Amino acid sequence: MKIATFNINGVKARLPRVLEWLEEFNPDVACLQEIKSIDENFPRLEFEEKGWNVETHGQKSFNGVAILSKHPIEDIMRRLPDLDSSECEEDEQARYIEATVKGVRVASIYLPNGNPRPGPKFDYKLSWMDRLIKRAEYLRTLEIPVVLAGDYNVIPFDEDCHNPAAWTEDALTQPESRARLRTLWNMGYTDSIRQITPRGPMYSYWDFQRGAWQKDHGIRIDHLLLSPQAADILKDAKVDRIPRGKEKPSDHTPVWVELDIA
Fold first, then answer.
1. CATH of region 2-259, choose from 3.30.540.10, 3.30.565.10, 3.90.650.10, 3.60.10.10
2. Per-residue 3-state assignment (H helix, E strand, C coil) for 12-55
3. N or C: which terminus of the chain carries fewer CB neighbours within 10 A?
């Protein structure tokens, strides 16, 4: 069972590239971020005609997440619960959707960027991460395979970016952001890419400016974190660089895991 995450940077702009990638790579589940579309305008039919089940949590012009699956999508939850209750917070930013596919609980996550910092955007990022941690803690108690997939907007370590010095003031590398990611690891969630490839560049994002792609000046911010039950059946995890090199690409490229599920 292949589960991929892909920040597509606008479904309207990238639809041909996304459809092409889905046909070529053929994942079982694709978690999309930054669809930049309200649910009613998402090109559902174009995907359904290719055999995909589609669930979205959209927002006009910004953010937005989706889960596409070759299998039935069940028990869908949109938005993260509030920190102080089990009720989903009425967050105006569409950044989280969660569902079950073939017994695996899958979340598509678009974590806030947090820049500029300090300020309200960074505060929102940290509080959003706190809510994600609380949800992940609950999912951990279910003792089932869980995959928390998406654009985390966190560079875990300096080795996960080409030029660490250029990112020292950015929200993506701040101690508070990294500490919250470590909280998820310490809770028992595995960084799937580093489980398979412990060292070396595994970038998932290259800026459109300054020839970043051509020079391989990238960063790693797209992650699939696995609960112990998912990590136990992990077969492989890689970055699919091919879509980034095509015409009119997203600035991100897909990252995927393969789990040993029939």
1. 3.60.10.10
2. HHHHHHHHHHHHHHCCCEEEEECCCCCHHHCCHHHHHCCCCEEE
3. C
**Measured distance CA(262)–CA(80) in Å, rounded:** 30
pTM of the predicted structure, to 2 decimals: 0.96
Strands (E), 42-172: 53-57, 65-69, 74-78, 96-101, 104-110, 146-151
